[in-house]
Design a protein that fits this description.
By secondary structure, the chain is mainly beta. It has one domain (2-114): Jelly Rolls (Sandwich). It is 15% helix and 52% strand. The protein is built from 1 helix and 8 strands; from the N terminus they run ββββββββα. It has one helix spanning 118-138; strands spanning 2-12, 17-23, 28-37, 45-53, 58-63, 75-85, 90-97, 103-113. Strands 1-8-3-6 form a 4-stranded antiparallel β-sheet, with no helix packed on it. The protein has a 4-stranded antiparallel β-sheet with strand order 2-7-4-5, with no helix packed on it. A hairpin with a 4-residue loop joins strand 4 (45-53) and strand 5 (58-63). The longest helix is centred in the last third of the chain and has 21 residues, at 118-138. The chain is elongated and about 75 Å long.
């Protein structure tokens, strides 16, 4: 199982809403993450996570529930998920700043997958070649 943390971090100006997107490079499951709200947000910065997946029924919100947002002050909120994501699905983070000051919000989402990245495949191939050459030297080949 390969685990990857996807980091969404953005400074959001007062009175602005943004949608951040990450295109999934491989299928897997979103297993959890963290929202980080700095001091001064005073519940005026709202965050939610959605998945856009045409093959799984369009856009669906994964946290918090329903059409809600989470808004905190000087706090981190850890969450657990069990959401399937397919290759090319979009992981979306909506951030709305209804306050009078800009704030930098961090959201980290953890994805687990069975698939290996190209770098992982290349490392496995190099390791296999090294092991094969060690075997060859042991037997005088």
């Amino acid at each position: 199982m390969v685990s990857e943390q996807i980091n969404f971090r953005r400074a959001v100006a007062a009175g602005v809403a943004v949608r951040l997107a990450h295109r999934n490079q491989k299928a897997g499951r979103l297993t959890g993450g963290l929202f980080s709200f700095p001091d001064g947000c005073n519940n005026a910065v709202q965050v939610r996570i959605l998945i856009s997946s045409p093959s799984l029924g369009g856009i669906r919100q994964v946290t918090p529930i329903a059409n809600a947002y989470i808004a905190l002050n000087d706090a981190n909120w850890e969450f657990t998920l069990d959401e399937a994501v397919l290759k090319d699905d979009l992981i979306l983070v909506d951030i709305r700043n209804t306050g009078a000051e800009a704030h930098t919000i961090s959201v980290v989402v953890t994805r687990q997958s069975e698939e290996k990245t190209q770098v992982e495949h290349e490392a496995a191939e190099r390791k296999a070649k090294v092991e094969q050459s060690k075997k060859g030297r042991r037997f005088g080949h």
